[in-house]
Specification:
The chain has about 280 residues and is mainly alpha-helical. The chain has a domain of about 190 residues. It contains twelve helices and no strands.
């Protein structure tokens, strides 16, 4: 089956529109509020890191500073990852389960599948490290030119693997697949023959959200700056949280639509789910 971008987008819009009220609740609790809280808690520290980088643009020093920053708050990052993971899997369940679960039931499913999801993400990270970071390190040790060439190849490999494993969360949530290796293999097979089309589709989504979100944040930020520094900080956190929530909702809607199309779920079944 050849992947149809237009059909996938139309189906994603249908899925999101059919569940807009529950989606708004899940997005607010799991994607908006945690992001706003993080921004408000650590705005000063992040601003200090940016100022330090501007004063001393040393990549190694900046890397150490970032590692130190996240090393101090690792437990907060872990909590945020758990919250976001449950929200992602729960929302995918809401968008795909023909049994029409309640929000609570969908989130309970997401919580049950959280460990397989993290396991799959860990496997992907290890694979990327072995196939990308290690060759770059070896190439850089040989010469700067070799490092650059290997780096270019590594970027291509990264994008390819990203696309091949893109549907892993959807497989875990929609098929209730608790085996990370099986979920990765299923995603690989579903995307076979359509990797370039899927990548272009998701890439265009990222670009659109980045451009619209960036312009929106800039305009609103300028307006909020008129109200003083404190209002600007709070307003920017809220706007960033809103953009983050909208991105995740769109991305998960698209993910569910891509899965449905490649897995062979018909439009009639989708409509029946939400009628």
């Amino acid at each position: 089956m050849k992947f149809d971008m237009t059909a996938a987008w139309s189906e994603a819009v249908r899925l999101l529109a059919a569940n807009r009220q529950v989606i708004a609740v899940v997005a607010g609790v799991f994607f908006f509020l945690p992001y706003v809280a993080f921004m408000l808690l650590f705005t000063n520290q992040m601003s200090a890191l940016e100022a330090s980088q501007a004063a001393n643009p040393d990549p190694e020093a900046m890397g150490q500073a970032m590692m130190g920053f996240y090393g101090d708050i690792w437990w907060i990052v872990l909590i945020a990852a758990v919250i976001q993971g449950i929200g992602m899997l729960g929302l995918l369940t809401l968008l795909s389960d023909r049994a029409r679960p309640t929000v609570g039931e969908a989130l309970k499913t997401g919580a049950k599948l959280l460990l397989p999801y993290f396991g799959a993400q860990l496997l992907i990270s290890v694979l990327l490290g072995l196939l990308i970071l290690l060759p770059i390190a070896i190439g850089t040790a040989v010469s700067a030119t070799a490092g650059v060439l290997v780096g270019i190849v590594a970027v291509v490999v990264f994008l390819y693997l990203f696309t091949k494993f893109l549907l892993t969360p959807a497989v875990i949530a929609i098929e209730r697949q608790a085996n990370p290796l099986t979920a990765l293999g299923r995603s690989w097979r579903l995307t076979k023959g359509n990797s370039v089309r899927i990548f272009l589709f998701v890439f265009l989504l990222f670009v659109a959200v980045a451009v619209v979100g960036g312009v929106f944040s800039m305009v609103v930020g300028l307006v909020l700056a008129l109200g003083g520094a404190e209002a600007a900080v709070i307003g920017q956190a809220v706007i960033s949280g809103l953009v983050n929530a909208v991105f995740y909702v769109l991305f998960l809607g698209v993910l569910a639509a891509i899965y449905r199309q490649l897995a062979g779920t018909s439009t009639e079944e989708v409509r029946e789910t939400f009628d």
